[in-house]
C-alpha cells in the first residue's frame, strides 16, 4: 500500500458516560450511530458526522477516588500541549449555535461567543467549547468566498457538515512538522494568528499570538491535522497521561506499515491501524 493512501480514518475520544456522549453528539451536531461491538457498549461505539468517523470508548477509572488527574483538575487549556480539539464545519453559525444551546452539559471555551477572525488569520468565524466530558470542540464557518471545495454544496440535515481537522497544541512547531512529515503528512498553509479575537476565541484573555500549520494527508481527505504553537501566552508543556479522559487518539490508515501505537514529541497519541 502506497503512503499516498494515508488518511485520518477516525478519532478516538474517551468518554465517562458513553450513552450520554452518543446522545449529545446526535442532538448537538446530528451525528449518526454507526455501530458497536457489544450491546452494552463495553468496547465503545462508532458515530459519524458526514463522512468523518468518531470512535467513542468508555473511560477506565484510575487514581484516587476512581478519577484521573485531569478529571479532578480540569481539562487542558488551549495553550497546553495536552490540548486537542476537533473542528466541525458549519454552514450557518447562528443555526449551529441554536442547535448547540438546546443541548445539555456543554461549556464554552470562547469568552465572547463566535469570533470572526481577521482576514490575515483566514477570516473564518469560530467558536470553541467543550462537550460533556470536557473534550474541546470548535464550530468553524468559512467566509462565503473561501469555502474549500470539499465543503461546498453538501446536503446535510442540519448546519453541521463534518469534521474539518483535529488541532493539537505543540511546544515546537518545526519539530512537530518534521515528525508528522515522517508519517507521510505534507505541510499546507502556515500563518500566525494575532490579536484580541484569537485570545477570546481560545479562552486565553484579550490577546493571543498563535502559529497555525495545516498538515494534510496526500489524498487531502478530511479531516486533516493542524498544529497550534502559542507565542503569547507561551505554550505550557503538560502532556496528557495514560488513563486520562483527554487521551484523544488519531487513527491512521493507509500507512503501508504494521499496526502500531505512537506518541508524537508532545505526547499526542496516534494509532496506525494498517
Write up this protein.
This is Glyoxalase. Residues 7-142 form the VOC domain. Keywords: Metal-binding. The protein is α+β, with helices and mostly antiparallel strands and 274 residues long. It has one domain: 2,3-Dihydroxybiphenyl 1,2-Dioxygenase, domain 1 (Roll), CATH 3.10.180.10. The chain is built from five helices and 16 strands. The chain has helices at 18-29, 69-73, 93-101, 173-183, 196-201; strands spanning 7-15, 32-36, 45-49, 52-58, 84-90, 107-108, 115-116, 125-130, 136-141, 160-169, 186-195, 208-216, 224-232, 249-253, 260-263, 269-272. Strand 2 and strand 3 form a beta hairpin.
What keyword list fits this structure?
274 residues; alpha+beta; 2,3-Dihydroxybiphenyl 1,2-Dioxygenase, domain 1; nine-stranded mixed sheet; seven-stranded mixed sheet
In CATH terms, what is the architecture?
Roll
| Low-pLDDT segments, ≥5 res | 61-71
Q: How many helical stretches?
A: 5
Number of strands: 16
Helix content: 10-25%
* CATH-defined superfamily: 2,3-Dihydroxybiphenyl 1,2-Dioxygenase, domain 1
Domain VOC: 7-142
Keywords: Metal-binding
Pfam families: Glyoxalase
InterPro entries: Glyas_Bleomycin-R_OHBP_Dase (IPR029068), Glyas_Fos-R_dOase_dom (IPR004360), MMCE/EMCE_epimerase (IPR051785), VOC_core (IPR037523)
Short description:
The chain has a single domain (3-272), classed as 2,3-Dihydroxybiphenyl 1,2-Dioxygenase, domain 1. The protein is α+β, with helices and mostly antiparallel strands and 274 residues long.
Amino acid at each position: 500500500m502506497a503512503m499516498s493512501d494515508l488518511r485520518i480514518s477516525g478519532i478516538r475520544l474517551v468518554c465517562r458516560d458513553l450513552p450520554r456522549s452518543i446522545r449529545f453528539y446526535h442532538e448537538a451536531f446530528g451525528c449518526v450511530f454507526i455501530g458497536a461491538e457489544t450491546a452494552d457498549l463495553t468496547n465503545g461505539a462508532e458515530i459519524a458526522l458526514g463522512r468523518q468517523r468518531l470512535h467513542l470508548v468508555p473511560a477506565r477509572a484510575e487514581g484516587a477516588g476512581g478519577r484521573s488527574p485531569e478529571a479532578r483538575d480540569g481539562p487542558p487549556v488551549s495553550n497546553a500541549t495536552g490540548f486537542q480539539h476537533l473542528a466541525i464545519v458549519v454552514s450557518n453559525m447562528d443555526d449551529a449555535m441554536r442547535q448547540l444551546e438546546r443541548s445539555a452539559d456543554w461549556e464554552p471555551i470562547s469568552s465572547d461567543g463566535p469570533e470572526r477572525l481577521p482576514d490575515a488569520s483566514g477570516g473564518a468565524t469560530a467558536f470553541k467549547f467543550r462537550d460533556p466530558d470536557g473534550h474541546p470542540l470548535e464550530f468553524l464557518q468559512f467566509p462565503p468566498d473561501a469555502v474549500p471545495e470539499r465543503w461546498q454544496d453538501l446536503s446535510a440535515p442540519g448546519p453541521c457538515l463534518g469534521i474539518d481537522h483535529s488541532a493539537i497544541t505543540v511546544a515546537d512547531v518545526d519539530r512537530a512538522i518534521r515528525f508528522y512529515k515522517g508519517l507521510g503528512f505534507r505541510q499546507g498553509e502556515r500563518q500566525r494568528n494575532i490579536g484580541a479575537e484569537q485570545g477570546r476565541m481560545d479562552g486565553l484573555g484579550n490577546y493571543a499570538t498563535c502559529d497555525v500549520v495545516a498538515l494534510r494527508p496526500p489524498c487531502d481527505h478530511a479531516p486533516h491535522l493542524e498544529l497550534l504553537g502559542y507565542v503569547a501566552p507561551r505554550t505550557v508543556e503538560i502532556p496528557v497521561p495514560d488513563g486520562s479522559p483527554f487521551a484523544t487518539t488519531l487513527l491512521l490508515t493507509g500507512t503501508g506499515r504494521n499496526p502500531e501505537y505512537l506518541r508524537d514529541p508532545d505526547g499526542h497519541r496516534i494509532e496506525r491501524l494498517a
